[in-house]
Amino acid sequence: MAHAILTTKHIRQMGHNNKTTQAPRRKNFDTGSDITIISEHTFDTLNIKETEAVDRSARSATGELPLTSQFTCSVSFQGEEKSLTCRVSSIYDLNVMGLDWIDAFNLKDQPINSVCNQVHNFQGSVDKSAIKPRSAQLKLSFSDVFDSKMGLCNKTKAVLQTKPNVQPVFRPKRSVAYAMQQLVETELQRLQDCEIISPLTYSDWADPLLS
Question: Which domains, from first to last, does the chain contain?
Answer without folding.
Answer: 8-114 (2.40.70.10)
